[in-house]
Structure formats: C-alpha cells, structure tokens
TrEMBL record:
Keywords of this entry: Acetylation, Autophagy, Cytoplasmic vesicle, Endoplasmic reticulum, Endosome, Glycoprotein, Golgi apparatus, Lipid transport, Membrane, Mitochondrion, Phosphoprotein, Transmembrane, Transmembrane helix, Transport, Ubl conjugation
Superkingdom of the source species: Eukaryota
Comp. bias intervals (Acidic residues): 712-722
PANTHER family per UniProt: APG9 AUTOPHAGY 9, AUTOPHAGY-RELATED PROTEIN 9A
Catalytic activity: a 1,2-diacyl-sn-glycero-3-phosphoethanolamine(in) = a 1,2-diacyl-sn-glycero-3-phosphoethanolamine(out); a 1,2-diacyl-sn-glycero-3-phospho-L-serine(in) = a 1,2-diacyl-sn-glycero-3-phospho-L-serine(out); a 1,2-diacyl-sn-glycero-3-phosphocholine(in) = a 1,2-diacyl-sn-glycero-3-phosphocholine(out)
Organism: Cyprinus carpio carpio
Location relative to the cell: Cytoplasmic vesicle, Autophagosome membrane; Endoplasmic reticulum membrane; Golgi apparatus, trans-Golgi network membrane; Late endosome membrane
Region (Disordered): 1-20, 650-676, 712-806
Family: Belongs to the ATG9 family.
Name of this chain's protein: Autophagy-related protein 9
Signal peptide positions on this chain: none
Bias kind Low complexity: ranges: 726-750
Main location class: membrane
Taxonomic path: Eukaryota, Metazoa, Chordata, Craniata, Vertebrata
GO biological process, one term: reticulophagy
Amino acid sequence: MAHFDTEYQRLEASYSDSPPGEENLLVHVPEGSKSPWHHIENLDLFFQRISFKNGFTCMLLGEIFELVQLVFVVAFTVFLANCVDYDILFANKFVNHTDSSKVTLPDAFLPVDVCSARIRDNVFVIFILIISGVFWLHRLVKFIYNICCYWEIRSFYINALKMSMTDLPYFTWQEVQARIIEIQKEHQICIHKKELTELDIYHRILRFKNYMVAMVNKSLLPVRFRLPLLGDTVFYTRGLKYNFELIFFWGPGSLFENEWSLKPEYKRGGNRLELADRLSSRILWIGIANLLLCPVILIWQILYAFFSYTEVIKREPGSLGARCWSLYGRFYLRHFNELDHELMSRLSKGYKASSKYMNCFMSPLLTVVAKNVAFFAGSILAVLIALTIYDEDVLAVEHVLSSITLLGICITVCRSFIPDKHMVFCPEQLLKVILAHIHYMPDHWQGNAHRYETRDEFAQLFQYKAVFILEELLSPVITPFILIFCLRRKSLEIIDFFRNFTVDVVGVGDTCSFAQMDVRQHGHPAWMSAGKTEASIYQQAEDGKTELSLMHFAITNPHWQPPRESTHFISLLKEKVHREAAAGQQGIIAENPAFTSTHSLQSDSEPRSLIANLLMGPPSLASLHLGREGSINPVSIGVSEGASALRSLSPVSTSQHLRGTMTGSGTDARTISSGSSAWEGQLSSMVLSEYASTEMSIHALYMHESAPEYYDESSESVNEDMEAARTFPRSSTFPTTSHQAGAAQQSGSQRHYGRTSDPVSGSFRAQRTPRMPMGGWSEENQMSRHHDPVPEEGSEDELPPHIHKV
C-alpha cells in the first residue's frame, strides 16, 4: 500500500505562556553586566542536575563508587574464574604444610604467573576485559565531565540561589524552584523569556519522560503481550526502556537533533513513509547490536544480581516475596509533569495498602500445604539447632550448615503463603485507599476488587521483587526480539505520534503536547471534559490522564497560573463540587458514627495529625480520615461525600476551622487554582506537602467516583446500543475480560468518544468509540469527526512544518 490516511492531525496552539509582546523576545544584556549563569545553553541538563538536590559531595561519591564498582565486579569475577584452585578449597586436594596442618585461604590461590597465563590463554576473558575497559574509559570521561557540571551546580546553589550545601537537604523542591524563577529576572539564565514559569522548568526537566508517559498512556510502546500459558503479560525492563530512549531521543540518528528540538524532517507529513522506513531500519540495526552484545550484557546482569541480592536473600529470605512497583506501573501511574521524587513519594504512601490488598488473595490450598511444610521443616531445624547448641562440632559434619540455611529459607517462604489470622478481607476499601494515592485505576476494577482478574491486572503494576529480578535477567535475551519483531511494525505510528503531538513552546523548545495538560486538546469527555474538549479519539489522553495531571500540577504548584481553558475546567469542577456538597453534606456524621472513634485513635504528637485535624474540622469530612501511616481510611466515600470533602478544603469552609487549629491563622486556605502564599508563612514545608498530597488524594477519589455518574448524566438520550456499552472500561491499558468483550459484540454498532451537541439545550453528550491502535486508521467506518487527510508523498515542499508556537 502506497499511502494511508491516518487520524493523526496537527494540534493548534492553545495558549501562550509568555506575556503579550514576548513571543519572539530575545533579551540583550551588555557584556560587562553578564552573570556567570547568563544564557545557559543546555537548560534541560542544568535543571535536571539541580532537581537531584543531593549536594556536591553525594553526587561526587556516587560517581566515584560507580567507577570503582565496575572495576571490582570485572576484576573479582576474572579472579574467581582463573586464579582460585577449587580442589583445595573443597578439600579434594591435600596441601603439605611443614608448620601446620590447617588449610588457609591463601593456599587456594594460584601463583601470579599461573593466573596470568590462564587469563592470556582464555580468548573469551580477553574479550570481556576489552569490552569492559572501553566501557570504563567511557564512564571515566563522563565522570570528569559530570564533576565539572556538579561543581557548577554547587556554585549556582551557593552564589545564585543563596543556599549552603549543609542546609540544602532541608529545602523543598518548591522552594528551590521559586528561587530559580526569581533569579531569572536578575541573571537571565534563559534569554528567550523575561520570566520563567513552573511549567517551563518541569517541561525542561521532564521533556523526554513526558513523551514516554504519553506513549505508554496511548499504548504505543510494545510492552503488552499475550502468551500461550501466561495470558496477558507486561514486559518492560530497564534495558528495554534504555533502548527506547536511545532510539527516540539521544542516540545516533535519533528523532531529536539536540536536547530541546525535534529534527525538522520529522515535523512534516509529506515524507512520513520514508521516515518510517528509515526508523524501521535503524530499529533493526539496534536490535541486531543488542543480539550480538547479548552474552556480555547477560553475564553482567547475572553477576550484578548475584553480588547485589545474595547477601540480602541470605539475611532476609522473605525479601523475594516482597513486592515493588514495576517499571511499567511507574509510567502508567505517573502524571504528566511529575518529578521522580514526587512520584516515588506518592507510590510509597500507597505501598502498605497495596501489599495488604495483594495479601487478601491467599489460596486456602496453598495455605494448608505451607503450614504443614513449615511444620516439618521447622521440626528438623529445631533438632539441628539443639544439637549445635549441645556440641558445636556438629557444624563440622558435612552439609549440616547448608541444611540449616536451606531449612530456614524454606520456612520463610512457607510463611509468606500463610495469611495473618487477624486480617480482614476488605478488598473494595483497600482499593479505594490505593486509589487515593496512585490516582489511576481502570473503571472495571470498581466493584470487582474481590476478583482474581482484578488482582492479576494490579499485579502488573505491583509485582514481586523476584519477578522484577527475573525480568531484568531475561531482558538481554528478550529485548532484541521485541525491537526487531514488535517495535519495527510501529515505526509509522511513532513518526505520526512525534509529528502530531509535538509543540514548540517559547523559551522551552519542542515538548509533548500532552504535557501542556490542555483539556481542550487532550481532554476526555468521560472525565468531566465533555463540552470543553475538542479532541478526537486519538488526541484524548486515556484514564483521565490530562485532567488528573492538571489537578496534580495545580495543587503541587499553587503559584502557577493555568491557561484559560484549564482555569475554566477547574472552576466548573469546583462549582459542581460545591453543588453536590450542598446536597450531601447534611447528616454525614450521624450516618457515620465510626468516625469519632476512628479520630480518637490519632496521635496528636505526629506531624500528620495537623492534616487529620484540618480534615476532621468541617463535618463534611466525616467519611475520610488520615491514619497514622498517611493512608486514607474511607468509611464510605461516595460522590456526595467526596464532593463534601472537596468543599471542606475551600476557603469558605476551612478558614474558620483553621483559626481555631493554628495560632495566628487568619487567612484562607489555598485552593487548587489559587496563587496565594498565605499558608507558606504559617505552616512548615512538610505540612504544606502533606496538605497538597491529601488534597490531591481527595480530588482523585472524587473524580473517579463521579466520572461514571457524570458520564451517565451526559448520555441520557443515547440509544439502547449505547446503554449496552456502558459496562466497557475507559482504559485501553487493561483490556476487557471475555464476558465484557461478549457484551461489546452484542451491541453491534460503532461507539464514539466524540462530542455531539443538543440544538435545544446546547449541552454536550459524550459518546463512546471502540478502541483502535494508536495511529491506526479506518477505511470502512468513518469517525464522527472528519479531518483533512495527510498529503501524499512528494508534497513536502508545499507543506508548512507540522509544528507550532505556543
């Protein structure tokens, strides 16, 4: 096929984040008055290093130990393989001693000349040493460059930001960011704008990560697979992520010509097929390179995992049964414009609730087997320990010490399958607590938290540590095949994605348009954006990513002024919250008498008790309480309760309570769109951070609870086939189950997430549409929104660049 008409379309500029008249501004500063930080060329890298905020000494030691660690792993492995006589070590060969009959450890070491001869005769070892030496020299050059950059960052903190290295750990990122915005007026670190905004700084730090989050959100990256025995499986490792970034962003022949600019040829649509072929060829060669380097990388992964985890497994055998957030889960749950420390803080707060939820699904059969195996292993272990206490010579018997170690590991593993006898099975409540922190969850999980299908899908985000280690070990083998056979087929879709979802922001450069968090261009009608979004099905961010990211960024950065459309969205949301809160606020405490006893368990000595008191103050928050570990204990969080909770955080309902809670508090609390800094003079940074986290948790709960009702209200006049489709989830990340797919086939008609207007009332109705692949096209069925087709090959010179100024 020579040409395809894709649904991707160029996005128009939604707003300008520069003051009027500064769109093409270039600030000129006389030579004599320039500061050392005037016009920093690579602001992306500069801001990224500032955001680490660990201090010069920590970064220096980290770089040094990385170099030493690489040398140690390679040298120690070569020594163990070529310079140790294992026959002596295992007592298979006797050593003649004149002074003592004991065998010492140096007796097992081969002489230097024998060791060096064995290394020279081994071609594979020589090859490994050459590869390691080249890589180490590359790291050494990078280390020298990074040290110079770190020294510059240290000088910037001390002289420009007026922060000493000793006090740096006690500053929050918001305080550092505020000082950077302030010194822009004096030092002009960016000469293209007079003033920097919070969003400008986030865009530069997270430019490439926002693209990755968007591609995961639109299911563009090949990380989900259906395997014959395992079913739906997610495979996304650090090695695969490294190759994605190498291909897209910074590798030779990548799509970006520098840190901040997409190559001009990728901004035009006329040669999209040629660019797709070029990208496909490049992916093929990188996949072949991964295949050739697979043995070296695999050996390194095995050695690094062995040196890293063996001692931990020996000391804590149950650590492999612990869980961690998967790499895919961190990208799926990440907001646009969310820094690493903000994401990890949010996921860490939901860790305990997630662990409790996964522990609810214990198999009774496995529990019975584990109890009996633990009993038998414990009995044998008890006898061996008793004999060892009676006479320590028992340890000299062959395999006794190994038996004690293996029996201890067996008992620990068995205990991980035995549930706590005091545990209460309440998956729905736990899932709500998890949602309050992770903010994203497919709709079909609601009401199905007790099902094993929901548990298996959540396990893709919250996996075993053992599974994480196993995936990293298999990554060098599987990654080349994913690149060659899966990613290459998506070359055209990737080219279209970067062309259509890239915008040029003044003073920032090319950024992902999804990171603008514009509900008009990327909002979803099922997430309170109906009537405010003009996005087609391919332009909509899934799972409410645009709306939730907008709320998160506005709460985290209260001084940031959103664009007009976003401000309108927030205002309408607040209006709806207040309206529903007024209807559902009465009688909540009477309906939830358990709240009083729950609050009495809170310790006033803890820092979070202040937030708990703030939330407890208005009676509308009777259904929500912040526990000792920062988790939200929902008694019954519904739409009206969530609305009441949000209303209690508004200035009107909280100002009087704050006056009674904090000494000298006479100002109103900040809201999601307020730029007031009143609280910053009354509360510490830690309390502000906890308040913002709690506020965002309540918003996430409210939006998830009210989204289905909001969708039902906006689609009352839809026909019966639309009613049959309401059970469909809005998430393409987690496909529907078999019974849900059957319901979809019975509906028989095409559904859209478009926008239709009522000529009488002027209201909008959100319609659902079936999922299509990212960048896909439909030849038989036409969408409700028609766009101009992309011109054919050869018309490149007639096209303006598919990129625009914001």
